[in-house]
Amino acid sequence: MTDRSGDMTDWRAVATATEPARRAEAEAGVRLAYRSAGLPEPERIVWAASPREAVGLLLSADAATAPAARGRSVREEVRSRPWAAERAGLHERLGSQGWGRRWARTGAALWETTQALSARIRAGVVEELADGPGEEAAVRLLLLDAVLGQHDAAWLCAFEPGEGSALDGPAAVARTAGWWWPYAHLAVICERPVELHRDEAGRLDRADGPALAYPDGFALHAWRGMPVPADFLARLGSLTPERIREEENAELRRVMLEHFGYDRYLAESGAEPVHRDETGVLWRIPLPDDEDVAMVEVVNSTPEPDGTSRTYWLRVPPATRTAREGVAWTFGLAAEAYEPLRQT
Description:
This protein is of the alpha+beta class. The protein folds into 2 domains: about 10-190, no CATH class; about 240-335, no CATH class. It contains 14 helices and 12 strands. It has helices at about 10-15, 25-35, 50-60, 65-70, 75-105, 110-130, 135-145, 155-160, 170-175, 230-235, 240-245, 250-260, 260-270, 325-330; strands spanning about 45-50, 180, 185-190, 195, 210-215, 220, 220-225, 225, 275, 280-285, 295-300, 310-315. The strands form 4 sheets. The protein has a 4-stranded antiparallel sheet with strand order 9-10-11-12, with helices on both faces. α1 (about 10-15) runs parallel beside α6. The protein is elongated. It starts with 7 loop residues before the first helix and ends in a 14-residue tail after the last helix.
């Protein structure tokens, strides 16, 4: 049996696309998804600039998008059931091991990216629209009605619908737009983000603006995957050791230290070394309401082309007692086992 699988490059581009939605194609995909599920096409299709705006429309008192006007959610019919049927069919044709191999070389490579983006978007929508437990529950319920469009790329990559598959409609929307909400009488479709910035590990990351942004201004800020307030990033350029010590949020304090530089912090805060031996110098940075930061300063014994020797800073466990113990830990060794023939 032929194992047809998606083009990874293509689906990776779908998951991270920031171009404007191709609205006519996306709307055609929505209508196809309804027809494939045996449902009448939606009477109205409404566009939103972001998932935040979409949920806001569904929460509003506007008669056109109120529960009575939009009808029940049909996500089960247009996405969940076809997804389950496609997966069951692949299991039957390929067997458990065959399906596992297919997933490993297709969807698995995108899963972490799409899951992380989806989780962050949901959290951002809840944070901006929910004021109290009651509203939070309502927002979360509406988020459960969403089909993730481009962020369903991992599954669609593995399934690679085509030739009349019930997932052809959702796949068409995924290739051309963002999230969408299918109801009996109404479908709401979102634009894609206009900005997406990630680090080498694929985490949301940007120091000078939003890491993820939509056309209406809905944005998420992050530093190496960690959510941060928008104004926090603007203050990173004017950090001082005192400001770092005064930060009450331990996670934000770690971001500050990383951005400021551990070596610079040590130099400007007047820190004293706690141990010194032939391998290097152990420094410790006490932090209020948090574990200490321990660093070993080592000098490369091989000179640079200009004759200088480069200094490196190695982050080591807080309980490290000696420089040798810290350097040995970076090699996965105990201090007594660390006997380099030549330090480099």
